[in-house]
Each structure stands twice: as C-alpha cells, then as structure tokens.
Design a protein that fits this description.
The complex is a heterodimer of chains A (113) and B (116). In chain A, the strands form 2 sheets. In chain A, strands 2, 4, 5, 6, 9, 10 and 11 form a 7-stranded mixed beta sheet that branches. Chain A has 113 residues and is mainly beta. In chain A, β7 and β8 form a beta hairpin. Chain B is mainly beta and 116 residues long. In chain B, the strands form 3 sheets. In chain B, strands 2, 5, 6, 10, 11 and 12 form a 6-stranded mixed beta sheet that branches. Chain B has a 4-stranded antiparallel beta sheet with strand order 3-9-8-7, with no helix packed on it. In chain B, β10 and β11 form a beta hairpin. The radius of gyration of chain B is 14 Å and the shape is globular. Classes of the chains: A mainly beta (113), B mainly beta (116). At the A-B interface, β5, β9 and β10 of A face β5, β6, β10 and β11 of B.
Chain lengths: 113, 116
C-alpha cells in the first residue's frame, strides 16, 4: 500500500492557461474522488469515479473542469482557462467501497496569478 | 440540506491537557454517517473514525474518544493527554445515505495547537 499520490505538489499558472493534475489511487481501490479545499475551509466534493465511470459531479464543477479516469486506474483533472478563483488545494482520494473511509493524497496546490 | 458546524476555529492547549473538539451537524436524512479526519501540516487528510446514525455508542481508541449524541446532533472528539504531534486541523464530516452516498460534506475545521 503506497498510498494515494498526486502530481504535481504545486502549480503556479497565469490566468487563462490550462492546467492538468494527476492522481494515482491505491491500486486495489475502485473508487476515486476529487475534492477542492480553499484556505480556512474544509474540502468540497467535486466529482467521483467508480472504475472508469464518472458517476457523480458537483455543481462546483463548472464546464471549465473535466476529469477522466481511463482504464479505471489513475485520474486526471483538467482546468481550462484558469481563473484566480480556481486557486485552491485539489485533493484526490480513493476508497474500497461506498461510505468507506477515504484515503487522501497530499494534494496539488494551484495558484493562479 | 446538510450542514456541519465546527464552531471552534482555533484551540491552543498545553501538552498533556485534555481537549474536546465540537461538531454539530444538520441533516434531514434518518440514515447518515459521521467522520472525523485529521489534516497535519503535510496536508494529507487522515481518517480517524466513522460512525453511522444507528450506532450511538461512544468509542475510545487510545487517547482519542468520540461522543455521539443524536439528541443534540453532536459528534464531539476528545483527545486525552494531548501531545505536540496532535497539532493539526481536525475536520468533522457528514455523508447522507440518500443524497451523499459517495461524497462527504466537511465542516470548516478546528485548528488545534498543542504547546510543549
């Protein structure tokens, strides 16, 4: 069990640029989640995958955001035309079942200048 | 709609003191799950406990204990004999059975600082 890994740890970009983050879940976990956390707040749910199927999306996930999980393994989260309001920590988590405990990665800190 | 309130934004205690972190929740669902997570300075959220709405038994795990009271919609967390390593942000979270099968609704967290 190597844990959930996220790459990169930090990303600085200019407004209007596109960014992509990667998450590698725990290998035997079929469920993968993306959360966003801003300073002083708790994580907010963005989207959820079961295997390769994206089954749930939050209203927070605007059309500039897209997530994929090809082959049900790693996942990517892309933000197009970034805005300063997108600056946040993007957290990935995985689990082995519904309502089971989530294992979180260390997150990708995005700063949009 | 669900809501999780952690009224204590920051708490400081001296090492070896006991400390209780409060969590009050709101939900219309009769079946739900409550969680506590710890977020140390490294940023990685660590699971501490999960409790379903039908299980009001208090739980103790080493220096940690949890008090779940449905009558007051509270799920409080106590650390006994606090240590410097307990310094972190602690989040309470709620998962509703009907609407939140696969997502957690987190409170705003309580930052605990344990002073040596």
């Amino acid at each position: 069990d190597t844990g959930v890994s996220q790459d990169p740890r930090h990303k600085i970009t200019k407004r209007g640029q596109n960014v992509t983050f990667r998450c590698d879940p725990i290998s035997e976990h079929n469920r993968l989640y993306w959360y966003r956390q801003t300073l002083g707040q708790g994580p907010e749910f963005l989207t959820y995958f079961q295997n390769e199927a994206q089954l749930e999306k939050s209203r927070l996930l605007s059309d500039r955001f897209s997530a994929e999980r090809p082959k049900g393994s790693f996942s990517t989260l892309e933000i197009q035309r970034t805005e300063q309001g997108d600056s946040a920590m993007y957290l990935c988590a995985s689990s082995s079942g519904s309502r089971e405990k989530l294992f979180f990665g260390s997150g990708t800190q995005l700063s949009v200048l | 709609a669900q809501k999780v309130t952690q009224a204590q934004t920051e708490i400081s205690v001296v090492e070896k003191e006991d400390v209780t972190l409060d969590c009050v929740y709101e939900t219309r669902d009769t079946t739900y799950y409550l969680f506590w997570y710890k977020q140390p300075p490294s940023g990685e959220l660590v699971f501490l406990i999960r409790r379903n709405s039908f299980d009001e038994q208090n739980e103790i795990s080493g220096r940690y204990s949890w008090n779940f009271q449905k009558s007051t919609s509270s799920f409080n967390f106590t650390i006994t004999a606090s240590q410097v390593v307990d310094s972190a942000v602690y989040f309470c979270a709620l998962s509703e059975f009907q609407t939140g099968a696969n997502n957690l609704f987190f409170g705003t967290g309580t930052r605990l600082t344990v002073i040596p």
